[in-house]
């Protein structure tokens, strides 16, 4: 078993604090790294040691591998936890950690690289028996090849960046006349965002749901899943809120999707926490989309309904320990919803950095808040706009919605604009309450809200 007494957290914000919570419970010392802009950040205040690794720019700080490795060596840490985002899915960073005899808390570098290449990931999953959408087996070479593939799979289709995600380098094509121009646009976006212009093509599902399966796997071939998360409510391919379990998945579907994910982990020799993302069609068919080889933003909803501490399990696996429980020990209790609270104008979705003049965290039964924000904290303009995650749990989905409505009302953040009002409107939405939605929910929701606002203005 590897000794891990001190961990450097190569991240910032709420996920850095979240990792620290578990480290403190496990008696593990922590090292925070921070940019000059984050000198007063909460993760810096809570850590046992803290080191500045560069200016405000992510490229010069949180993505600066030499600076992070230097900080790790200076503080003599045993391991590095990358959190999510930044370097969490960098096979280069994972390799350098291992070469410096620092344990990277995550899967092996070669697995990260394999799953990071979306085309290679599709190939690997297909070989492991995971259902995939019809599409190109390799990156598209040119417009002629794209037209050939399009004729085979039909329209509509979607062009995706092979090296990335988050909606960048992604284009939906409904007619052949648009294929060439959209291909060029997607390639240019992918090159700008990921320094790799490779793209591939898949059949496009019009009204899917986005379902993901959380897995845990140790280094000895044992793997389990912790059920699913419903991540369908998105805007421009960015998740806004998540819940567990899904309001539409049956026990049989859950077992089928979970078993497929576990088998795939065993086939590729995966170890650590990971997430399989699937598209669920209206007819109940599901298809592999991608695998995230890290902890997810939305991991708390799984923790709430299974009582699993995913960070704890990541660290145990990194120490070379076996999984502490088997699949039959996993039970889903009640329902959990997470709302991502962003420092954004809820109508324009533009960033709203600045000083927080008032801050109140809701409490009461079944309420959890993951945040790195405090009164008088200044939200910097340099990083992702998410400043908190509000998570609730109740015995039923209806109860969880009522609890979230109450918690949102009691969550006070003043001095900046936040997405709290948007989440309040979503909780009141009839289709959301019924669980009747697809990935087009926000598009239809915003259109309905705009019509309502125009009608109200006209009546006045």
How would you describe this structure to a colleague?
Helix content is 36%, strand content 23%. The protein is of the alpha+beta class and 460 residues long. Helix 4 packs antiparallel against helix 5 and helix 12 runs antiparallel to helix 13. It is globular, with a radius of gyration of 22 Å. The model has no long low-confidence stretch (mean pLDDT 96).
* CATH class placement of the largest domain: Alpha Beta
Structural domain count:
3
CATH architecture of the largest domain: 2-Layer Sandwich
Uncertain parts = none
Which sequence of strands runs across the widest sheet?
3-2-1-4-5
CATH topology of the largest domain: D-amino Acid Aminotransferase, Chain A, domain 1
Structural class: alpha+beta
* Euclidean distance between termini CA atoms: 71 Å
Please state the CA-atom Rg, rounded to the nearest Å. 22 Å
Classified in CATH, the superfamily of the largest domain is ATP-grasp fold, B domain
Largest sheet: 5 strands, parallel
Structural features:
460 residues; alpha+beta; Rossmann fold; Dna Ligase, domain 1; D-amino Acid Aminotransferase, Chain A, domain 1; 3 domains; 23% strand; globular
Topology of helices and strands:
Layout: E1 6-9, H1 13-25, E2 29-35, H2 42-46, E3 49-54, H3 65-75, E4 79-81, H4 91-99, E5 103-104, H5 109-116, H6 118-127, H7 143-153, E6 157-161, E7 171-173, H8 179-194, E8 199-203, E9 209-217, E10 223-230, E11 234-235, E12 238-239, E13 241-244, H9 251-268, E14 272-280, E15 286-292, H10 299-306, H11 310-318, E16 335-342, E17 354-355, E18 358-360, E19 367-371, E20 378-379, E21 386-394, H12 397-410, E22 412-414, H13 420-428, H14 430-434, H15 441-459
Parallel strand pairs: 1-2, 1-4, 2-3, 4-5
Antiparallel strand pairs: 6-7, 6-8, 9-10, 9-14, 11-12, 13-16, 14-15, 16-21, 17-20, 18-22, 19-21
